[in-house]
Structures
1.
Amino acid sequence: MSKTPIPAPPPTMAQIRKRLDEALTNGHQPKDLVLRLTLRDASLIKRSPVFADDEIRFVDGVMHVLGVATVTGQVQESGIAAAEAAAS
């Protein structure tokens, strides 16, 4: 009998921060990226000590983290994508 695989734990705020920092360090511009967040991670990121108050801002109802726009919900795991992919 096979066992049901255990899903991987969601990324931590430190891992999300690291992924964003790496993308920006590798030459990606914040406007070319979108941070797709689960509802849980969107809630956690707002109160996480990993991100300073001035690293999170809201413009026209959209949260930006390190200058990268976020899309909340409709994903099973938070991650970074190209902005064009988010628009479709």
2.
Amino acid sequence: MTDVQMDYDMMEEMGRLFKEASQHMEDLTRAMQDIATRLEDGALQGRAGQIFAEALRNNLASRINALQAKLEELSMDVYAAMTDMYDADQRGASGFGD
């Protein structure tokens, strides 16, 4: 049987970084929406401005949102794996306590 070891500090850092990256994606989406609004409000008017703003809002935003959701999912997966492994370590160690 293979021994499984986990560096809990490293796993916690990994989960935190995924969560932080997810937050950056959310910030990026807000900034992009602001840019699209500015374009529509005068920086780039007419059909070209409208098409570009729609591309930002619809195409790019949906892809950034999908990436944000995946990063959030990875963060939760890392924390769940870390918790499961910690619980298993505790159960295994409890058999040697008495």
3.
Amino acid sequence: MNRNARRARAIAIAQAKPDNKLVAARYFVLSASALAAVAALLLARCF
């Protein structure tokens, strides 16, 4: 792979947009972990 091909590949990777399914899964995991943390705090205060 010559220098120009490597540079073009690096630019293409840098400009690639994330997949919508991956973004949705990431937000789902983030919200689920936040919900679990809030539930744990509420349970700790009740008992």
4.
Amino acid sequence: MLDFNRYFLPDRRIFLDNVQYETLETPNPTENRKLNCKDTILAQRSDKWIKINFNRTLSFAPEGVFRLSVTYGVLLFFNPQTKDEINWKETDIAGAFRENCKPLLANMMSRTSLMVAQITSASGQNPLITPAAPVADAGSAQ
């Protein structure tokens, strides 16, 4: 179990990293569509910080209506006194974040859910409310 409070300073910066929204031509608007919602957590590492991205992507099957991707990030700055206790190159940082930083992850998910609702309601439609919790087994990569 990776103790993020031990290896990172309390200064954590959450930010909107990326939004991609594309309306799609829908040849048969009455056709039934399934909404697909996928969550992904990615980690990037530098000598001074780790950046964790939480991404939620929404699309429809069959393709139509829109495609939407919202990514929030958080920068975690290494504690210089404890940083070298861990081999960060061999650590599944995204997986450890998912398991050990649930309040911070919930904060990012809540922001993502709110952004999805705001974007999908911008054209006067009812907002699409996605859960402020994992919608599926989130993937991880470094």
